[in-house]
Structure formats: C-alpha cells, structure tokens
Sequence to fold (432 residues):
Amino acid sequence: MLFSDLKLSQPLQKAVELQGYTAPTPVQAQAIPAILEGRDMLAGAQTGTGKTAAFTLPMLEILSRTRPKTPHKVRVLILTPTRELAAQVAESVKTYGQFMPFKSAVVFGGVGIHPQIAMLKKGVDILIATPGRLLDLVGQEALDLRHVEMFVLDEADRMLDMGFIKDIRRVITILPAKRQNLLFSATYSDEIKTLCESILRNPVTVEVARRNTSSELVEQRVIMVDCARKSALLGELIQKHKWEQVLVFTRTKHHANKLSEYLEKIGIKAAAIHGNKSQSARTKALADFKAGSVKILVATDIAARGLDIDALPHVVNFELPNIAEDYVHRIGRTGRAGNKGEAISLVCIDEHDYLAGIERLIHRKLNREILAGYEPDPTIKAEPIQQGRGGKGGNRSSRDRGQSNAGNKSHASTPQQRDNRPRNSVQKSRGR
Fold:
C-alpha cells in the first residue's frame, strides 16, 4: 500500500511527500481508513510505529471535508500526558497541515498561562494539551470545547500511570456527547479496558504488535552488578565502547541528577531531565542531546515518555522500573522505524523481582551477563527498594554509604519518590 491509496487530499499528499514518505506504516495503513469512516478507535502500537501520523493525517482530512458552523472554534482536542509529547504532536500537526488553512495550538503547564489565553482568543481549530493546563484554561473560561468533533487520547496508559484518570473524566464531561473518539495506548491493562468502555462507541481495534511486548529490533542485555558499582560500570561501558548517544533511565529525580553529575565528573557530557526541571531546561537538554553536544541523557520515566529521537542506538536501564510495562516503554525509545537498537539493564540483587516481572510480561527469559571486574558480591542480601507507586518503601543507605567511590556514593543515598505524582495528588503538578 502507498499513501496515494489512502484517498487523502492533495495538500496532505504533498506534505507527506515532502517528508520523504511513500508507504504508510502498519498502524497508519490500518488506522487511517477506519478513522476516515468516522469510527471510534482503540489502537495499540509500540512507540516509533508512526502512530502520531496515523491520527493526524485523517484528522486533517476530516476537517477539510466539512465547513464548521463557527470558524476557528476548537474542533479537535488531542490530550497527551507530558509537555514533550504535546510539543511533538503539535509539530506533526503543523508539518502535515502546512498546506491547509487550519490553526493549531499547544498548551501545557510549566509556562505562563496568559500568553496561551491570548492565543486561544484568536481562534484555534486543533488544540493539543496536557490535562492539567487544559482544565485550568476551562476553569478560567478561556476555552470553549462545545464544538469538539474529534477527541484523541494519546498515550492513554501513561495518562493513567501519572494519575490523570480524574482529569480525563472531567474533560469528557465537558465535551459534546456526539464526537469521534480515538484512544492510543502502547500497553493494555484492566484500567485501560474500563476507560475504553466509558469513552469509545463500537470501536475499531488496531494492534500492530502483540500486547505488552518488546520490540524485536532491540537487542536486550542484562548485566548483573552490585547496586553501588553501577555508576562506575556505566561510565566504563560508555568510554570503552565509545558510545555517542545513550538514553539512561533512573527511577527517581534524585538519582537522575546524581548520575548526570557523576558522568560529568569523569569527563562524559551528560544532562538530566525530570519533572523538577523547567520546561526550558528540559527542551535545551533534549536539543543538546539530539545535536550531539550532550552524549548521555539521564531521564525519569515521566520526562522521557514521548521523546522522539531518530535512530537512538542505546538505552540503559540504570535502575529497573518497578512497573514492568515501563520497561517496554523505555526500550521502545530505541529500535524505532526499522533501525536496530540495544537496551542494557544494570541489575542488582535488589531488583531480581522486578526483572522476573518484566520477563513474565514480555514472555521472554533475558540472559544474565557478568563483566570481569564487576562481579556481584555474593554476601550482599537483597533489600526492599522504595517505590514511587504500587509498592513498599526501603533503601540501601546503610550499606552503600560505606563505598568510597564518589560516583558510587552519590547513588547510595536514600531513594526519593519516583517522578510520578501519587494518584490522589494530581492537582499539585498538572501538565508534566
């Protein structure tokens, strides 16, 4: 199938051609015709499969086929969990809609609300937003959603993970009852199924990969190492193999900062992104990483979700996530768009249960490696890890603080709560 077979209008065909695309990805080939028919949709796809274009192209086509009763009122609402993803979706809308007359805008927290209010007053056809800022604007009567014809919920699983379920339900009550609904989710859960039942009407289901699986293009490695020696091992791997672009995941903002500082101390250009960083700092760090002036980007799960980095060769799980599905999201940053990638997990004895949970989810046993000079100490016993959500608390501080290495010591401090906000405190930090 070619894009020319999808019956898109000439302005869209031209925009697609300018991007160098001739054939749609599997999710695009399945989703676009169904969306053009006006059907509600539940789409499950790995990151990097072209899902943004899968809803952006038919959305623009549908808008072009009908004349609105009231011009420049919000006709499409796209809800995303993070600022970064909102900005990327907005860029795609501009790219594919560059030869069309529609006005789009993106709104999220972390920046001033008044310029956004002024922008909305000028009229917008397509609005991309994070839940918290959207509701702030509605609360200030700066936004009219009565004319919405299409509602897109992107990264629905991450929305729920971040505690946005109440905000999502509030948004739904504001929208017109008659509308087309599209829900995209990389993984499924009972909560996702419940959400779908409350939003979607007789939906078409599109799934281009098995549920909750890891990309076959990603080589997955597990290296067993003591918790206190992870920093030194990561530094050696980067320097020995001359890695130029690596996305590293930690569970907490505190550890992201500490690891970034340690890598800088040993001469490796690194930057950290997480929820406590300002939007400008996060944007700069990502731009420097893409440009190559920063080799290592250390991120928490929330900050990294939605990052679109072409041909990213390496992902490192410095700490395994305590939610197994997050492992799939993390390694999905590499092995995108047909490119091969490598995902390395540094696993200490405390994380064996997490590793077992991941293997159950992906239906695969991962080989354990031990590198010379970093053999785990068999006398160390497992201790509980403090979790950001869904588990018990604990720390390794008493043992790890005894280490002399500066990098190791920095990672031995008591872990802080994960970047995610608790589900009952969404109001405190909207739109991250």
The radius of gyration is 22 Å. The chain has a mean pLDDT of 83. The first helix runs from residue 10 to 18.
